[in-house]
Amino acid sequence: MTRPRSEHPVLIVDDEKNIRRALRMVLEGEGLEVSEAATIAEAEAALAGAPHDLVLLDVKLGEGNGIDLLERIKSAPGAERDIPVLMISGHATVDDAVRATRLGAFDFLEKPLDRERVIVSVRNALERRAMGREVATLRAAESGRHEMIGESPVMQELFRQVARIAPTKGRVLVTGESGTGKELIARAIHRTWLQSLGLAELGRRGGEGNVPFVKVNCAAIPPELIESELFGHERGAFTGAVGRKRGLFEIADGGTIFLDEIGDMSLPAQAKVLRVLQQGEIVRVGGEKVLTVDCRVIAATNKNLTEEVAAGRFREDLFFRLNVIPIRAPSLRERPEDIPLLAEAFVRLCCDENGFRPKRISPEVLSRLTRHPWPGNVRELRNVIERLVILADDEISARDLPPYLEAGGPHVRGSAGSPIPGVEAPSLVLDPRRYLSLTLREFRDQVEREFLRLKLEQNQWNVSRTAQELEIERTNLHKRLRALGIERE
Description:
About 45% of the residues lie in helices and about 15% in strands.
């Protein structure tokens, strides 16, 4: 039988010192790391303070009942409920044994304990624990493979970078065009980091529950509210602050915080973020108490932060703090060989989400999709595929394509007004045949919706810049976006 690995931590919970000492000798003889608790309170403190792979738990704990603790373990959120528990008793009734089994006890050992029986049961429990971890790791890896799809050389290099970066504590700055999947890269780093710990639910401090991944869209939060969102506030800190609120950095403690669109953050908020990165400390708005946080920071932007620093819109010291490990998300134009894989994956996903029968994509459609430059990158491709799945029959054919794809799409060429180097922003193509069934108001809303979406994509979804170009107030643009149902995915 395989000898358990020495890194397995085991907790013995028994109010009899001699029993704890005897079990410790047996388990340490097997190379296991052993800790002890004499009461339920001590056991709960030990489980909350560090991860354990196995618990040996006495049914009678003075005035306490070990089965009650078993029930709490098995109903706990996150990883703690998966810990195998071996129940021990010299006075247990049949009802105790039945209840413990129903609650999920791995085995039931009777006193006086037989050394060989204890060793066999412990080994079996630890092997089951190792198998559960392996299954969780494989599922997480499979999930990640479906989230970031690609067989092109640039994507294979990206996967290698994520694998190298994730187990470290280095801060990461993800750059790339809008729609390239910068958030997916951040999530892949977070998930791979958890896998490197050996157990997906455990964080740096071994706390219980899922390790948080907190996303912050810095461009979507008004400048006057971003400090409150990031660092929290105390009651009465400002009008409307009716109670204490935890900030997103505090919520991310022990996990990862993803600062998306960091280039759009205001300078005062940048100064506060810099303090967190330098000292690991935050102060809630309106508060005086300094709180310590420990979370991994991943930032992302579609802006050139070097240019932003030169223009005085981004702090140079913050840029250097964030840009420890730079990663660039490749555009879809750099990996056209991945477009058929992505398209077919999105078709399956959209069919599942909408309860449709599986649909096929004709070779001609895949060919046209591959030739299109996709200025909106993977996000634009997914939106097109979703529309095709909803409107097409069992096979998606060329006649189902939108007009600009039907015509072959815009050519890749330079454009002074385009935010994407080497690519002209998509044009608004109006085909009157598409609108003959609409009322005048429906037609107007449809055209305005398409126009605003294109303008936002052209400006990388920067609402302030788009409002400036359209010569309207930013608040009015927000109202139109809400009225037309336009939102960034």
